[in-house]
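DUF3450 domain-containing protein structure dump, as promised
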Amino acid sequence: MSKRTLIASAVLGAFALGSSAIVSADPLNDLHSEEFKIQADAAKSQEKINTLFEQSQELLVEYRGVVDETENLKVYNDYLAGLVADQQRAIDSLQRQIDSIEETKQGIVPLMFRMIDSLDKFIDLDIPINLVERKERVQRLRDIMSNSNVTVSEQFRQVIEAYQIENEYGTRIQSYQGKLDDNGTEVTVDFFNLGRTALLALSLDQTTAWVWDNDARKWEQLGDEYLKSVVDAVKMAQGIIPADLIKLPIKAAE
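structure tokens r here:
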């Protein structure tokens, strides 16, 4: 080849090599660009993943809190259900009692009337201790039985109380002032009763004494041999002198 031809070939070769390097550099840049884009997209995706993970953790914590609260509410609801059931049983019991009140009244009211009648008869047959007071008590019982403002329970309480007072007369030693009928003459005296064993009376001038004869239902005047004993008995009941042995006219038990 000629020298000129060699030079031209060299120039063309160099030009060809240069063009080849330029052509090969463009795909590499594109590859780096894509890699950067992929890395950027990956970073964004990771950021989204991290955000979603944090949100999921928050939701998990919230879910667990809701589950715990639900369990607590279930326990509390079971507790309330037990209370409601117990209250319902109490209400049912009260309702049954209310329903039976009328039946109770139907049985207890006639009973109270019989008790008052029996008490009145007993006082008539008993020795006349505090006779006026006891008769007035019976009359008050009859009055409250016809009083609509007094409850059945209060009526029954007062009837029982009257029986308790009557029972106390059997163990009480007392002296009180009153009047007795001595053969048509009303005399003011000091009464003395030794329970229901003996009922005596002493004139205020302490010159005459009487004893109640329950069989004959009248007062009998005592002889002088009992006068001092009756005077002492009245003084003992009044607390004037200390208790001591005394002779009293007591009817023997049959």
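Residues 173-254 form one domain.
lmk if u need the other ones
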